[in-house]
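Weekly puzzle thread! Below is a chain. First person to post its structure in token form gets bragging rights.
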Amino acid sequence: MVMKKGVRQEGEGSSDEDGGADSSVIPDVERFIGVGIRVSFTGDSADMRDMNQLSGGQKSLVALTLIFAIQKCDPAPFYLFDEIDAALDAQYRKAVADMIRDLKSEAQFITTTFRPELLESAEKFYGVKFRNKVSHIECVTKGEALDFVEDDQTHG
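Winning reply:
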């Protein structure tokens, strides 16, 4: 993470004529204008890239990494993820599913997906069906959930 500072104005940080600090100096903490994230997927610091240079899947991985890191330090009781795996390749969907499985004893994870990888580690499955212009939610088996996502991938 990179802290972004505002541009220092002329005269900031200078001392007054008495040799004391200028009372108009803006403290460093108040000059922060945001946080930027630079990442490397190779471990090489020379290969650092800004978020706007990343693909959708890479941005998703960075966001999930940040969420999981915060969860380790200051956990929430539950997380609601809506299609977090949509932009990820199969290997990364599996890695995310494994991470959620490893963290499930510390928090509850509710996810929506149209991909099979997140279903493999799940314990409970719900199907949402649209009938007569109304959504209906019902418990389904793992097999039914897998059939649904496989059918969606085949016909979608």
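Puzzle host: Confirmed. Bonus trivia for everyone else. Strands lie at 2-5, 32-36, 38-39, 49-50, 78-82, 108-112, 126-131, 134-139.
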